[in-house]
Amino acid sequence: AQKVTQAQTEISVVEKEDVTLDCVYETRDTTYYLFWYKQPPSGELVFLIRRNSFDEQNEISGRYSWNFQKSTSSFNFTITASQVVDSAVYFCALSENSNYQLIWGAGTKLIIKP
Amino acid sequence: GAVVSQHPSWVICKSGTSVKIECRSLDFQATTMFWYRQFPKQSLMLMATSNEGSKATYEQGVEKDKFLINHASLTLSTLTVTSAHPEDSSFYICSAPNWDRGRETQYFGPGTRLLVL
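ok -> structure tokens follow
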């Protein structure tokens, strides 16, 4: 069965600290896609990254980086030098075989204190 | 980039009335759209898959007679909450997939906040 687990319900750090959001997934498919989305208080989902199961290279985009490890079925997200504007709920999601349906984690609420 | 819009962005209605929410893909065609519901401090829950020209596919536990979905064109899907009650108050989000530079991507609407009094 497919499942996405974000064990961290809420994380609170002080601005400029680094923070890692965990995501563990379960799937039987060999081809799948992993996503991270940001949901600020406005509610609109902001796409951050999409990674397919055949690409295990880690990715860095500015202060954001993602660590994809198939051996542990994890796709963790790190924000370096966090800023107050990073405060939001972050969702990890899984899609299998491009069937377009997303399986969502419960989300992690990130609070960055000034 | 591809854009998905939703209308209205928020709506307040009396219990027992019906509310229609529109989801439009503005610059691409979508044969499939998805409707999600999100309660406060919870994750998104897929309600149904909207298919252009055919019946929607509902997730288990979602009442198809209460949440009517019509996907009449390649750019528009509508969700009608019939005889709305306070427990239907939620944040409703639609999404549509599109191929962008050889990659399938989901585009989300900004959401519709429904408050049933």
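Residues 18 and 80 of chain A are 4 Å apart (CA to CA).
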